[in-house]
Sequence to fold (243 residues):
Amino acid sequence: MDRLFAILGDIHSNLDALQVVLDDCRAQGVTDFLCTGDVVGYNACPHECLQIVRDLGCPVVMGNHDHYVSSVQNLDDFNPHAAAVIEWTRSQITDDELAYLRTLPFSATKMGVTLVHATLDNPSAFGYVFDHLQAESHFVHQVTPLCFHGHTHCPMIYEKQLGAVYRIDAQDFRMPIGRKYFINVGSVGQPRDGDPRAAYAIYSPKDRMVRFRRLEYDIEAAQGRIRAAGLPERLAERLAVGQ
Ligand code: ZN
Fold:
Protein backbone atom coordinates (compact mmCIF):
# COMPACT_ATOMS: atom_id res chain seq x y z
CA MET A 1 0.00 0.00 0.00
CA ASP A 2 1.27 3.48 -0.82
CA ARG A 3 2.03 5.56 2.22
CA LEU A 4 0.16 8.76 2.88
CA PHE A 5 1.36 11.09 5.62
CA ALA A 6 -0.73 13.50 7.64
CA ILE A 7 1.30 16.27 9.22
CA LEU A 8 -0.42 17.77 12.24
CA GLY A 9 0.87 20.72 14.24
CA ASP A 10 -0.08 23.35 16.79
CA ILE A 11 -2.94 21.22 18.08
CA HIS A 12 -2.84 23.34 21.23
CA SER A 13 -5.17 21.25 23.40
CA ASN A 14 -8.10 21.73 21.01
CA LEU A 15 -9.86 18.34 21.20
CA ASP A 16 -12.84 19.36 19.05
CA ALA A 17 -10.56 20.38 16.17
CA LEU A 18 -8.26 17.37 16.57
CA GLN A 19 -11.12 14.85 16.40
CA VAL A 20 -12.44 16.36 13.16
CA VAL A 21 -8.93 16.33 11.67
CA LEU A 22 -8.39 12.68 12.61
CA ASP A 23 -11.76 11.73 11.08
CA ASP A 24 -10.66 13.45 7.88
CA CYS A 25 -7.30 11.64 7.96
CA ARG A 26 -9.14 8.32 8.08
CA ALA A 27 -11.42 9.37 5.22
CA GLN A 28 -8.40 10.42 3.14
CA GLY A 29 -6.63 7.08 3.69
CA VAL A 30 -3.74 8.40 5.77
CA THR A 31 -1.32 5.63 6.80
CA ASP A 32 1.25 7.59 8.86
CA PHE A 33 1.31 10.64 11.10
CA LEU A 34 3.94 13.28 11.81
CA CYS A 35 3.55 16.02 14.41
CA THR A 36 5.30 19.39 14.34
CA GLY A 37 4.71 20.13 18.03
CA ASP A 38 2.74 22.37 20.36
CA VAL A 39 0.34 19.63 21.41
CA VAL A 40 -0.60 21.74 24.46
CA GLY A 41 -1.30 25.40 25.28
CA TYR A 42 -4.16 27.88 24.62
CA ASN A 43 -7.12 25.44 24.69
CA ALA A 44 -8.74 23.35 27.39
CA CYS A 45 -8.02 19.67 26.62
CA PRO A 46 -4.27 19.11 27.07
CA HIS A 47 -4.66 15.68 28.70
CA GLU A 48 -6.98 14.31 26.00
CA CYS A 49 -4.88 15.69 23.14
CA LEU A 50 -1.67 14.30 24.62
CA GLN A 51 -3.28 10.87 24.97
CA ILE A 52 -4.42 10.90 21.35
CA VAL A 53 -1.07 12.07 19.97
CA ARG A 54 0.85 9.53 22.03
CA ASP A 55 -1.49 6.76 20.84
CA LEU A 56 -0.68 7.70 17.24
CA GLY A 57 2.87 6.51 18.01
CA CYS A 58 4.31 8.97 15.53
CA PRO A 59 7.36 11.28 15.57
CA VAL A 60 6.56 14.46 17.52
CA VAL A 61 8.92 17.42 17.90
CA MET A 62 9.05 19.89 20.77
CA GLY A 63 6.96 23.03 20.41
CA ASN A 64 7.56 26.14 22.47
CA HIS A 65 4.42 25.56 24.54
CA ASP A 66 5.37 21.91 25.11
CA HIS A 67 8.73 23.23 26.28
CA TYR A 68 7.30 25.96 28.53
CA VAL A 69 4.85 23.59 30.21
CA SER A 70 7.38 20.83 30.84
CA SER A 71 10.71 22.56 31.35
CA VAL A 72 10.55 26.29 32.10
CA GLN A 73 10.38 26.93 35.82
CA ASN A 74 10.49 30.71 35.98
CA LEU A 75 7.51 32.28 34.18
CA ASP A 76 8.36 35.90 35.08
CA ASP A 77 9.24 36.72 31.46
CA PHE A 78 5.82 35.60 30.19
CA ASN A 79 2.82 37.85 29.90
CA PRO A 80 0.27 37.04 32.63
CA HIS A 81 -2.21 35.41 30.22
CA ALA A 82 0.44 33.08 28.83
CA ALA A 83 1.72 32.21 32.29
CA ALA A 84 -1.83 31.49 33.48
CA VAL A 85 -2.41 28.99 30.66
CA ILE A 86 0.95 27.31 31.28
CA GLU A 87 0.18 26.93 35.00
CA TRP A 88 -3.33 25.69 34.25
CA THR A 89 -2.03 23.15 31.71
CA ARG A 90 0.46 21.81 34.26
CA SER A 91 -2.42 21.29 36.68
CA GLN A 92 -4.35 19.22 34.11
CA ILE A 93 -1.76 16.72 32.91
CA THR A 94 -0.11 13.79 34.64
CA ASP A 95 3.51 13.53 35.76
CA ASP A 96 3.95 10.90 33.07
CA GLU A 97 2.68 13.35 30.44
CA LEU A 98 5.03 16.06 31.72
CA ALA A 99 7.91 13.60 31.48
CA TYR A 100 6.83 12.68 27.95
CA LEU A 101 6.82 16.35 26.90
CA ARG A 102 10.33 16.77 28.31
CA THR A 103 11.63 13.97 26.08
CA LEU A 104 10.46 15.49 22.80
CA PRO A 105 13.33 16.28 20.41
CA PHE A 106 13.70 19.73 18.88
CA SER A 107 13.90 18.17 15.42
CA ALA A 108 13.42 14.72 13.90
CA THR A 109 13.78 12.98 10.55
CA LYS A 110 11.63 10.15 9.24
CA MET A 111 11.91 8.60 5.77
CA GLY A 112 13.90 11.56 4.49
CA VAL A 113 11.46 14.13 5.87
CA THR A 114 12.57 16.57 8.57
CA LEU A 115 10.29 17.92 11.30
CA VAL A 116 10.89 21.02 13.39
CA HIS A 117 8.45 23.23 15.27
CA ALA A 118 9.80 26.63 14.20
CA THR A 119 13.04 26.61 12.19
CA LEU A 120 16.19 24.48 11.91
CA ASP A 121 18.17 27.69 12.39
CA ASN A 122 18.53 27.16 16.17
CA PRO A 123 15.41 25.00 16.77
CA SER A 124 15.30 25.58 20.54
CA ALA A 125 15.11 29.37 20.07
CA PHE A 126 11.70 29.05 18.31
CA GLY A 127 12.17 31.90 15.81
CA TYR A 128 9.32 32.82 13.47
CA VAL A 129 9.53 32.32 9.71
CA PHE A 130 7.43 34.95 7.99
CA ASP A 131 9.76 36.16 5.22
CA HIS A 132 12.44 35.12 2.72
CA LEU A 133 15.37 36.06 4.95
CA GLN A 134 14.11 33.90 7.79
CA ALA A 135 13.42 31.05 5.35
CA GLU A 136 16.95 31.40 3.92
CA SER A 137 18.49 31.10 7.40
CA HIS A 138 16.48 27.92 7.89
CA PHE A 139 17.45 26.38 4.53
CA VAL A 140 21.16 26.61 5.44
CA HIS A 141 20.45 23.82 7.96
CA GLN A 142 17.96 21.73 5.96
CA VAL A 143 19.73 18.68 4.50
CA THR A 144 16.63 16.72 3.42
CA PRO A 145 14.58 17.79 0.38
CA LEU A 146 11.50 18.31 2.56
CA CYS A 147 10.94 19.80 6.00
CA PHE A 148 7.61 20.42 7.72
CA HIS A 149 7.09 22.96 10.49
CA GLY A 150 4.50 25.15 12.22
CA HIS A 151 4.73 27.79 14.96
CA THR A 152 3.26 30.78 13.05
CA HIS A 153 -0.08 28.94 12.64
CA CYS A 154 -0.16 30.10 8.98
CA PRO A 155 0.12 27.51 6.17
CA MET A 156 2.99 28.46 3.86
CA ILE A 157 5.41 26.95 1.34
CA TYR A 158 9.00 28.09 0.78
CA GLU A 159 11.07 26.62 -2.04
CA LYS A 160 14.83 26.76 -2.50
CA GLN A 161 16.04 26.39 -6.05
CA LEU A 162 19.56 27.15 -7.37
CA GLY A 163 20.38 29.14 -4.25
CA ALA A 164 17.28 31.35 -4.40
CA VAL A 165 14.28 31.16 -2.04
CA TYR A 166 10.73 31.58 -3.31
CA ARG A 167 7.37 31.64 -1.58
CA ILE A 168 4.73 29.56 -3.32
CA ASP A 169 1.00 30.06 -2.92
CA ALA A 170 -0.81 26.82 -3.59
CA GLN A 171 -3.37 24.53 -2.00
CA ASP A 172 -2.27 21.36 -3.80
CA PHE A 173 1.35 21.30 -4.80
CA ARG A 174 3.55 18.77 -6.64
CA MET A 175 7.19 19.19 -5.66
CA PRO A 176 9.67 18.97 -8.55
CA ILE A 177 12.79 16.87 -7.90
CA GLY A 178 16.04 18.70 -7.13
CA ARG A 179 14.56 21.51 -5.05
CA LYS A 180 14.10 21.90 -1.31
CA TYR A 181 10.83 22.63 0.43
CA PHE A 182 10.08 24.10 3.86
CA ILE A 183 6.37 23.78 4.45
CA ASN A 184 4.30 25.21 7.28
CA VAL A 185 1.28 22.95 7.80
CA GLY A 186 -0.80 25.53 9.70
CA SER A 187 -2.51 24.91 13.01
CA VAL A 188 -5.06 22.28 13.98
CA GLY A 189 -6.17 24.04 17.14
CA GLN A 190 -5.69 27.80 16.70
CA PRO A 191 -5.40 28.96 13.06
CA ARG A 192 -4.14 32.53 12.63
CA ASP A 193 -4.37 33.16 8.89
CA GLY A 194 -7.87 34.60 9.08
CA ASP A 195 -9.51 31.25 8.32
CA PRO A 196 -10.84 29.69 11.55
CA ARG A 197 -11.09 26.17 10.11
CA ALA A 198 -8.68 23.54 11.46
CA ALA A 199 -5.59 23.13 9.26
CA TYR A 200 -3.24 20.26 8.49
CA ALA A 201 -1.37 18.85 5.49
CA ILE A 202 -1.22 15.55 3.65
CA TYR A 203 1.95 14.38 1.91
CA SER A 204 2.14 11.61 -0.66
CA PRO A 205 5.78 10.50 -1.19
CA LYS A 206 4.83 8.49 -4.28
CA ASP A 207 3.66 11.44 -6.37
CA ARG A 208 5.46 14.13 -4.32
CA MET A 209 2.18 15.91 -3.64
CA VAL A 210 1.43 18.11 -0.64
CA ARG A 211 -2.19 19.09 -0.02
CA PHE A 212 -3.39 21.58 2.57
CA ARG A 213 -6.64 20.57 4.28
CA ARG A 214 -9.08 22.94 6.04
CA LEU A 215 -11.98 21.63 8.11
CA GLU A 216 -14.94 23.12 9.89
CA TYR A 217 -15.26 22.01 13.49
CA ASP A 218 -17.43 22.91 16.47
CA ILE A 219 -15.74 26.17 17.48
CA GLU A 220 -18.47 26.96 20.02
CA ALA A 221 -17.76 23.71 21.83
CA ALA A 222 -14.05 24.56 22.05
CA GLN A 223 -14.89 28.07 23.26
CA GLY A 224 -17.23 26.62 25.89
CA ARG A 225 -14.42 24.45 27.24
CA ILE A 226 -12.06 27.45 27.45
CA ARG A 227 -14.66 29.45 29.40
CA ALA A 228 -15.54 26.52 31.67
CA ALA A 229 -11.85 26.11 32.49
CA GLY A 230 -11.58 29.80 33.40
CA LEU A 231 -8.91 30.44 30.74
CA PRO A 232 -8.62 33.99 29.28
CA GLU A 233 -11.68 35.02 27.20
CA ARG A 234 -9.41 36.25 24.41
CA LEU A 235 -8.42 32.63 23.74
CA ALA A 236 -12.06 31.76 23.07
CA GLU A 237 -12.72 34.81 20.90
CA ARG A 238 -9.74 34.33 18.61
CA LEU A 239 -10.87 30.83 17.57
CA ALA A 240 -13.93 32.29 15.85
CA VAL A 241 -11.91 34.68 13.67
CA GLY A 242 -8.81 32.58 13.04
CA GLN A 243 -6.40 35.14 14.46
ZN1 ZN B 1 1.76 27.19 18.43
